[in-house]
């Protein structure tokens, strides 16, 4: 231990120890980048001076509504300015921000509002009916609704609730922020959208969000003044913490209500977007966009993608359009991304597309703010770095949640042995890069052979007519399970089941080749992940 | 405070809380950048895999020499590989690194070795006589000397001490690093070179160095894989923490024994240097270098400069050579730079050279890792932001020292009121940018008028024949004090006293114009600062 023999007088004091918090990024930005554009959405264009003032007004208004430090303030808002402002305004009065997924059903929203004991909920006018139904279904006291209309987008005020802008207008732009005294204080509450049971409330601390921002900017090669397009929902790991990150860099956050190819291309061309994150489905949307939806742009745009490895065919196409894609991996419990497929320029340049894509399909290595991320067997021993031995991804570092709210047993289980247990099954390559073998349930076992649904999907996605493909296990008398594919074709495409099966068989072993192909739109979660459990149910019915 | 009503089970644990330390940057770099070039000096070219192994061997060797956690290990080495390795190898065995200024006299080195109770000292062969004289002059037990020869540079081994490379060769490259359990543990000890009295031992903690690195890379617009030329001595605030920073970015540290214009231009051209720090005297050296000492290069090179504002004439010249200069400000007590003259592109583009230089002469705003840096009067009230009202620069944030070793009284004084008191006198401009009015003793008071020696020096430096200029007060019967200039001319230049005085008078008020000019080489400290106290003594004798 690095304690010297005599450390008299060397203690922490106000001059040399300040609690880490992302709030300090905006406090500083208002001083050093006052005239830079902070948040953009349509006609809403606010500088850092204005953004800071509006967040201060929000904090002041919340205090006026009776919010006290430690209270929960919830939101039901798309990636719009008020949602970004809540990331600072809510903790600036000592409250904890609970961004709720706007695509959830009223029953689940009611559960979340009850479980978190939200005192106030900021609601976009589009989601007032959802909020009202949820409040009606609650067991406890319903939170006070504050309405955030977006008339220009066709969502005017209902007239039934106090309006966000009115509250701000009546509040104090010089409100003194309640900065944390201890960086372990709670900053945000995010409910995981588990496939079974009630969602769990993941609690973030100020320190974790601060360090998440620092690590992210290194991995994403961000310099001052990036322009970040907010596609990853801010209700999903707080948009991977990017709302908190932007003021550190004097960057601009570009809001976005509906994620469409024209909206993305327009933001890139008109606002000079340099960075965004999104599930592979977003990449797909871009490469498959008709020419009329595209725009010219000159900057290189950096994309972080997560949720599933991008298909090789998608990667090959999107890079020629001026995008650079880095796969990252993480969970709600880890504030979002904690591994990155760091590109080894010195070793990997000059590879062919297929080899590049195979490397980019890896989830990669620990990001800078993390201490250790590895793959372990059931006895918590690291698996061999052979690209074959499977185990669970285990995560240790400063961007790991405090735990699950009011669920100490689940927290204890998640942290057994000093690592967060991700639940994701992976291998480690000889260079230490982690690659998800399959979300545990996505392994198809056919005649005793393991089949990676990711691999089969990757092949199908290489077919020029395929927009999206998902492969699940279908129960089978003889083989136990066989792969069954669900496919969305591109508009106007005409490929049929036999053609796709033959295409897959040209690359895959027979046992890996889908035995059946079902065409139609795939069911997706609010974050764009394909709902495989729905497909598994459907496959079982076939 | 952001504590929720029920925080049961939400405590820190091994999974979600890891002590911040720059050591983790190298641990990670060895994993994710193993084949990247980490340290370069002549034939010494080591990858991150090798660098990590050598630092592990150093830690192992120190344990073999009897070093235990909390011990001090000192160095007397220029900016060479062993000095960089000590930044990781020493704390990796739990010891505290004390890099000693190689330009100090033996008596002061003896005081430092005694005061810090150094157990081992790593010594470059050039400084073996200094180390021997210091050890002989010590009151307590002398540290064990380990010699680091540099035969290629004309400094072969003395044959009297164990050799650094031999110790490494016999040590364990898989030594398990002793990472701090608490980020407040001591990492380094740096003695300030005060102008009066014995130096004070400034103690750094792991957290401060980690956050210093994070803040620096943002301000310096560093992305992955910078090439950093080590000009700022690593014994000066640990080279502003850059040895610790490089592994975070997979960057390359280029060693340098003697700071000369050819050495700098060669490193830029041959090693692709992208960043370096240095006092204005280094900038001067570059702009005044003869054509034969220069080399062509295509990259933009970013320079952090500190110690004094760069002269407008120097700034104007160096930017045309492919360098971008940012002034930073800090002290040993703040790990180096804590303010930066952040360039406000949106507001300041298109200004003329003189206006740009005037803005770049400011010390600027708090860097991202700092909480609050301002200028206060004696009552600790912020002075008006009018560019005129003077006060003391006061500093609060995570890159402030733990305190002075074995000097709790000086520590308490330095931290009165919850800020570190810098001792530097400054003004604040309306935009919050701080500008040093003068180091307190550098103000010349003539006939009741304050004269900024910095201003007068800036004018003199604009003369084409002037290489360096320093202005101090000379006692005067009539006016109390008058400005007296000491000037180094460029080789071959012929300007005389009358000519320079006339040149200055063309810009300056009469009372600010030097009454006397003395030509000759200026006395400088080990870090390149001009020793004004020597000049003041000389001026008093005139």
From TrEMBL, chains A, B:
Gene3D superfamilies noted in UniProt: 3.30.300.30, N-terminal domain of ligase-like
UniProt-listed SUPFAM superfamilies: Acetyl-CoA synthetase-like (SSF56801)
Domain AMP-dependent synthetase/ligase span(s) in chain numbering: 27-405
Keyword Transmembrane helix recorded: no
Domain AMP-binding enzyme C-terminal as annotated: residue spans: 455-529
Highest taxon listed in the record's lineage: Bacteria
Keyword ATP-binding in record: no
UniProt keyword list: Fatty acid metabolism, Ligase, Lipid metabolism
Pfam families: AMP-binding, AMP-binding_C
NCBIfam families: PRK08162.1 (NF006020)
Family: Belongs to the ATP-dependent AMP-binding enzyme family.
Protein name: AMP-binding protein
Organism: Sulfitobacter aestuarii
């Amino acid at each position: 231990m690095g304690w010297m023999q005599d450390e008299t007088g060397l203690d922490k004091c106000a001059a040399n120890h300040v609690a880490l918090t992302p709030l300090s990024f905006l406090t500083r930005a208002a001083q050093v980048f006052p005239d830079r554009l902070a948040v953009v959405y349509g006609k809403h264009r606010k500088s850092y001076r204005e953004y800071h003032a509006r967040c201060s007004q929000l904090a002041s208004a919340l205090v006026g509504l009776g919010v006290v430090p430690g209270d929960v303030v919830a939101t039901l808002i798309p990636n719009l300015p008020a949602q970004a402002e809540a990331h600072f305004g809510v903790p600036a009065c000592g409250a904890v921000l609970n961004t709720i997924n706007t695509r959830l059903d009223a029953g689940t929203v009611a559960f979340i509002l009850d479980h978190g004991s939200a005192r106030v909920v900021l609601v976009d006018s589009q989601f007032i009916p959802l909020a009202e139904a949820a409040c009606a279904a609650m067991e406890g006291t319903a939170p006070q609704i504050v309405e955030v209309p977006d008339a220009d987008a066709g969502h005017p005020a209902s007239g039934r609730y106090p309006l966000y802008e009115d509250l701000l207008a009546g509040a104090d732009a010089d409100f003194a922020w309640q900065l944390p005294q201890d960086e372990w204080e709670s900053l945000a509450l995010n409910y995981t959208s588990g496939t079974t049971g009630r969602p769990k409330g993941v609690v973030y601390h100020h320190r974790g969000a601060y360090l998440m921002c620092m690590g992210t900017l290194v991995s994403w090669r961000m310099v001052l003044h990036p322009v970040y397009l907010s596609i990853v929902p801010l209700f999903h790991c707080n948009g991977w913490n990017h709302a908190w990150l932007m003021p550190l860099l004097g960057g601009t956050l570009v809001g976005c209500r509906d994620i469409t190819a024209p909206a993305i291309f327009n933001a890139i061309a008109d606002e000079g977007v340099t960075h965004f994150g999104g599930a592979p489905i977003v990449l797909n949307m871009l490469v498959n966009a008709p020419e009329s939806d595209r725009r010219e742009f000159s900057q290189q745009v950096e994309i972080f993608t997560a949720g599933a490895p991008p298909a090789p065919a998608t990667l090959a196409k999107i890079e020629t359009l001026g995008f650079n894609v880095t796969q990252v991996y993480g969970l709600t419990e880890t504030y979002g991304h904690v591994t990155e497929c760091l590109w080894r320029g010195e070793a990997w340049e000059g590879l062919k597309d297929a080899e590049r894509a195979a490397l980019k399909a890896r989830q990669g290595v620990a990001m800078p703010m993390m201490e250790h991320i590895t793959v372990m067997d059931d006895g918590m021993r690291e698996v061999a770095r052979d690209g074959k031995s499977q185990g669970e991804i285990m995560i240790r570092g400063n961007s790991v949640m405090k735990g699950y709210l009011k669920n100490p047993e689940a927290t204890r289980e998640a942290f057994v042995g000093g690592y967060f247990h991700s639940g994701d099954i992976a291998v480690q390559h000889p260079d230490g890069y982690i690659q998800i073998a399959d979300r545990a349930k996505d392994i198809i076992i056919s005649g005793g052979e393991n089949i990676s649904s990711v691999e089969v999907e990757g092949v199908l996605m290489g077919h020029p007519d395929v927009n999206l493909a998902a492969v699940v296990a279908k129960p089978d008398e003889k083989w136990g399970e066989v792969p069954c594919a669900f496919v969305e074709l591109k508009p106007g495409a005409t490929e049929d089941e036999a053609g796709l099966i033959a295409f897959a068989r040209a690359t895959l072993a027979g046992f890996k080749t889908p035995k059946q192909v079902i065409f139609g739109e795939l069911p997706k979660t609010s974050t764009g992940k394909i709902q495989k459990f729905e497909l598994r149910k459907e496959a079982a019915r076939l």
